[in-house]
């Protein structure tokens, strides 16, 4: 009877599994800050992608690590970059799996910032040009969807125009539209080797206190051509997800970020809660708040529970 009257249903179709890809071959190195996550070379990412697809998860999101860093983040659009190589290999091995790619410069710049730094400030417009160049390189490799996470103003328009001008009109954009300057990114920054070398990202990521601004940011990205908009982080911002769902008629994604993931893992390891129950309750909460898509490092575990 409880199942008959259940209002919110969590499905494997809602899930996206993030992966971290790096240069090399045969690499599968555990990420010390994120339980159960690895740095994978493109060939090992293919193996992981096949498992993800076998579990019924419809999509993955690739984050890349470069072989070198510089002031422009040129490794982000390199044809032989880890992301580009992984996209080509995964689409060849698992063509039906949707491959999304993170588009940002933070892991590729020697400053660790998401944009080009000039005179101690982020050059927004110059960064947008490089983000579009990066997105195009991902599309050329075969990515189905690009996901700009930098929070530069106008970057969705720049990417859409660049993709369209080069014949990639059908490559979709999932924008990190409401990405807050959050303490919950800590484990990820170690995983992506992307901690800022100086200062922080509050000049371009959103103030966690601002909800109305989040609605303006989402509206702007939709106007510029975003197909899906994301709220990040998810757990402390379910009110933003709810407001976005009530206001906008487009798919809403929620990113269950590394700090949220590791809070539950660490508490479960300490015997303070049941990991599986807490995991499922948290993701159900994102769906109840209004998320259509959930990006989470729990994706494989959730798929296994749902498949029972």
Describe it.
There is one protein chain. The longest helix is centred in the middle third of the chain and has 18 residues, at 124-141. Helices cover 38% and strands 18% of the residues. It has a single domain (12-306), classed as TIM Barrel. It starts with 14 loop residues before the first strand and ends with a helix. The chain contains ten helices and twelve strands. An eight-stranded parallel barrel has the order 1-4-5-8-9-10-11-12, surrounded by nine helices. A two-stranded antiparallel ribbon has the order 6-7. By secondary structure, it is of the alpha/beta class. The chain is globular, with a radius of gyration of 18 Å. Helix 1 packs across helix 2 (82-93), helix 2 (82-93) runs parallel beside helix 3 and helix 7 runs parallel beside helix 9 (275-289). The protein has helices spanning 42-54, 82-93, 124-141, 155-165, 186-191, 212-224, 238-247, 258-269, 275-289, 299-306, and strands at residues 15-21, 28-30, 38-40, 59-64, 98-103, 117-118, 121-122, 145-148, 172-179, 228-232, 252-256, 293-296. The model has no long low-confidence stretch (mean pLDDT 94).
Supply the key terms:
single chain, 308 residues, alpha/beta, TIM Barrel, 8-stranded parallel barrel, 12 strands, 18% strand
Looking at CATH, which topology would you report? Answer: TIM Barrel
Mean pLDDT: 94
Shape: globular
* Low-pLDDT ranges: none
Structural class: alpha/beta
Portion of residues in beta strands equals 15-25%
